[in-house]
From TrEMBL:
Domain Serine dehydratase-like alpha subunit: 141-396
GO molecular function, one term: L-serine ammonia-lyase activity
Organism: Entomospira culicis
Full protein name: L-serine ammonia-lyase
Domain Serine dehydratase beta chain, first and last residues per copy: 7-58, 71-115
Protein's UniProt keywords contain Cytoplasm: no
GO terms of biological process kind: gluconeogenesis
InterPro entries reported for this sequence: ASB_dom_sf, Fe-S_L-Ser, Ser_deHydtase-like_asu, Ser_deHydtase_bsu
UniProt keyword list: 4Fe-4S, Gluconeogenesis, Iron, Iron-sulfur, Lyase, Metal-binding
Length: 403
C-alpha cells in the first residue's frame, strides 16, 4: 500500500485525474524530451470527453508554456483504451520527425500508470493487503491506526499531515468562505459558501451547525472548481468533503492541529486500502469511488476524533461507502460543479452521521470495510460508460435535455 504522502497531494483543481495527473505527465514527458522542437498529445476516453470542462488541455498547455514551449492537444473521445479510460499519448518531434512517444494513464488521485502497472508513483510503504490485516496488526500491537502510520512512515508523517495537508485544507476553507465570484465555465454557477455561512450565523443550535458544515464543504469544493490549489482527499472532485467535516469538528470541539493530523492519518489508512483494492477514479468506477471514498475516510477520521474504537472507525468507513454505492459520475458539461459541489457538502453531513451511527452501534457490524470496497469496485466495473465521467449520461444528459 502506498504512502499517505501519495494519497494526499497538493495540486490545482478541478480534477485530480484531469488536471494533477496530466500536469505531472506533461512535466515528466517534457523533462525526457527537453530538446524537441514540437510536441503533441492525444487525450482518450474520459480525458477527452470531459477534458475541456476539467481544464485538461489548459493545464497541459500551461506546463509547456511555462517552459517556453507549446503543444498541440487532440481530443479523441471515441477511443477508450482497455487499460484505463483516462489515457494520454504524448509525442515529441525534431525537424518534423517523431523522436519519442509515451502512453500514460491518469488513474485517479493524481496518480499515473503505464499499461499493466498499478501506479508509476506507488512504492509499497505498508505491508498490508486489506483493512483486516491493518486492524489485526493494530490490535496485536495495542496501538491506534495513526501509530501504524508513524511506525511505517516515521514521526515526520504527522508533521507532513499537519503542516502540508491540514494547513492547505484550512486555507481552502478560509479562501472559499471569502470568495463570492461566479465560478469559471459555461454554467456560470454562483458560489454559495459565503452566503451559506452568513445565513448559518443567523441561526442557532443544530440548524446553525448544519449551515456551517455545509458552508465549509462548499467552500473547499468551490475553490476546487475554480482551479485553486487543494488537497486530494482522495481526489479533487471529492476534495471538499473531508476538510469540510474536519474543519467543523475542530471548530466545534477545539481539537489541536496535532489531533487533526492524527485523524488525517486514520482517514488515510482507509483511503490507501480503497486505492489498492478498488479505485478512486470517477472515470473508472463512478462517483462512488470519489465521494464514497471521501465519505469513508472522513467518517473514519471523525470517529477517531470522537473517541471511537478502531472497530467503530471501520464501521463508520463502511457506512460511508455503503450508502454511496452505485453513485454515478455525471458532471454537467464536463465541469466539476453540478452535481459535484453539492455532493461534497451533503457528503460531509452523511460522513458525520456515519460516525455517530457507528458510535451508537456498540454491538458491532456484519459487513466489513473490505467487503464494501470489493462491492464498490465490482459495481463500478459494471456501470455503463456514460455513468463514468463522460458527461454522456445521468444528470449531465438530463440537464442539457431539460435546458
Amino acid at each position: 500500500m502506498e504512502s499517505l504522502r501519495i494519497l494526499y497531494k497538493i495540486g490545482p483543481g478541478p480534477s485530480s485525474s484531469h488536471t494533477i495527473g496530466p500536469m505531472r505527465a506533461s512535466e515528466s514527458f517534457l523533462s525526457q524530451y527537453s530538446k524537441a522542437d514540437s510536441y503533441a498529445v492525444e487525450l482518450w476516453g474520459s480525458l477527452a470527453a470531459t477534458g475541456k470542462g476539467h481544464l485538461t488541455d489548459y493545464i497541459i498547455k500551461k506546463v509547456f508554456e511555462d517552459a517556453g514551449r507549446s503543444i498541440d492537444v487532440e481530443f479523441k473521445m471515441d477511443y477508450v483504451h482497455p487499460f484505463h479510460p483516462n489515457g494520454m499519448l504524448f509525442k515529441a518531434y525534431q525537424d518534423g520527425q517523431e523522436i519519442g512517444r509515451e502512453q500514460i494513464f491518469s488513474i485517479g488521485g493524481g496518480n499515473l500508470a503505464h499499461e499493466g502497472e498499478s501506479s508509476t508513483a506507488e512504492v509499497s510503504t505498508y505491508p498490508y493487503q486489506n483493512f483486516a490485516e491493518i486492524h489485526q496488526d493494530a490490535q496485536e500491537k495495542g496501538v491506534e491506526l495513526w501509530q501504524l502510520a508513524v511506525e511505517y512512515e516515521g514521526q515526520e508523517i504527522l508533521t507532513f499531515l499537519r503542516d502540508n495537508v491540514w494547513n492547505v485544507m484550512k486555507e481552502a476553507v478560509h479562501s472559499g468562505l471569502a470568495a463570492d465570484e461566479v465560478l469559471p465555465g459555461s454554467l456560470q454557477l454562483k458560489r454559495r459558501a459565503k452566503k451559506f455561512f452568513a445565513k448559518s450565523q443567523e441561526q442557532s443550535g443544530e440548524v446553525r451547525e448544519l449551515g456551517e458544515l455545509f458552508a465549509y464543504g462548499l467552500a473547499v469544493s468551490e475553490e476546487n472548481a475554480a482551479g485553486s490549489f487543494i488537497i486530494t482527499a482522495p481526489t479533487c472532485g471529492a476534495a471538499g468533503l473531508l476538510p469540510g467535516l474536519f474543519y467543523f469538528l475542530q471548530k466545534k470541539h477545539q481539537f489541536s492541529d496535532e489531533e487533526m493530523a492524527k485523524a488525517l492519518a486514520v482517514a488515510g489508512m482507509f483511503g490507501i486500502v480503497i486505492k489498492k483494492n478498488a479505485s478512486v477514479s470517477g472515470a473508472e468506477a463512478g462517483c462512488q469511488a470519489e465521494i464514497g471514498s471521501a465519505a469513508s475516510m472522513a467518517a473514519a477520521g471523525a470517529t477517531y476524533l470522537l473517541k471511537g474504537t478502531i472497530a467503530q472507525q471501520e464501521y463508520a468507513a463502511e457506512i460511508g461507502m455503503e450508502h454511496h454505492l452505485g453513485l454515478t459520475c455525471d458532471p454537467v458539461d464536463g465541469l466539476v460543479q453540478i452535481p459535484c459541489i453539492e455532493r461534497n457538502a451533503v457528503g460531509a453531513r452523511r460522513a458525520y452521521d456515519a460516525a455517530y451511527y457507528a458510535l451508537f452501534a456498540e454491538d458491532g457490524h456484519r459487513v466489513s470495510f473490505d467487503t464494501v470496497v470489493a462491492t464498490m469496485w465490482e459495481t463500478g466495473l459494471n456501470l455503463r460508460p456514460e455513468y463514468r465521467e463522460t458527461s454522456q449520461g445521468g444528470l449531465a444528459k438530463a440537464f442539457l435535455r431539460g435546458s
